[in-house]
Amino acid sequence: xxxxxxxxxDQTPVIDGYKVVDAVAATVELAQAAxxxxxxxxxxxxxxxLLGVAxxxxxxxxxxxxxxxxxxxxxxxxxxxxxxxxxxxxxxxRMLEALFPGRIDLGVGRAPGGDMATARAVAAGRFDSxxxxxxxxxxxxxxxxxxxxxxxxxxxxLQPLIDTQPQLWMLGSSDFGGTLAAQLGIRxxxxxxxxxxxxxxxAKMYREHYLPGHEAAPYCAVALFVICADTEAExxxxxxxxxxRRVQMAYGLNAxxxxxxxxxxxxxxxxxxxxxxxxxxxxxxxxxxxVVGHMLELQDLFAADEIVVLTVAASYKARLRSYxxxxxxxxxNQ
Length: 334
Hints:
Layout: E1 5-10, H1 20-37, E2 41-44, H2 58-67, E3 73-80, H3 86-99, E4 104-109, H4 116-122, H5 132-144, E5 167-172, H6 175-184, E6 187-191, H7 199-208, E7 220-228, H8 232-250, H9 260-265, H10 270-279, E8 283-286, H11 288-302, E9 306-310, H12 316-329
Parallel strand pairs: 1-2, 1-9, 2-3, 3-4, 4-5, 5-6, 6-7, 7-8, 7-9
Helix pairs in contact: 1-12, 3-5, 6-7, 8-10
């Protein structure tokens, strides 16, 4: 049996030719499948103003998915905290925990989840990520009930009053997130799918400098972009669509996720091919025999307690099949 917990990060992708309601329905279907397949947790990402992804409100999606599943943990991957009041976020996720005890994760990040014009609109005119460290410290204190003297919420009742708490996670793609997670004593997930360059060093630093705080011991996950297919030919088709998506993103093109046909038909300039080549280390695409070994190598490199898998494929059927193949390869239900 392969040694790993597997979890899922879902961005609710909108594939070209489909509507947002189709993307949302596919997310519900995938969460239900993940529950049956034996995945540990299912996280929803927060994005704003992007035509290729369709979830600006993970806390709402979590409630829907938790009600449609029976076992799997549900959470945010993550809430973009600079937009919000830590007190209100604590209330929202304690409410989710009250509804689904022992099944809720609260992952937080500082990125805007879209372009800066959209970020300013979401933040009512001013997006300020500099306040993020204090916000996370406040959130950890609110959830643990260990508020420092003089804290603005010191004498306020945080509702709902419950016996269990959501798990708190820091999400990051640099040493900033790892350092903050270590200082505050919270769980940490490194986004290798964003930054494949030095995450293992960040994970090592996180463990070595961890200070018991919100939790007694460090816990680290590595988040990987993986597409697993039955055949090499199918994997190549899905990879071609990913290549096109990477070029679109490099040009700042706001568009739905490309289809296999669009990926096959695209031809690239020398500059565009260089973009594709530079981005390929962020992805693991192939048959189970081709990708699983690399996943385990990265887990060992990070000394990660679990792997979180992000799959954005050119069809919803291919995305579901990818997670099915990984569940079989890792024998999640054994």
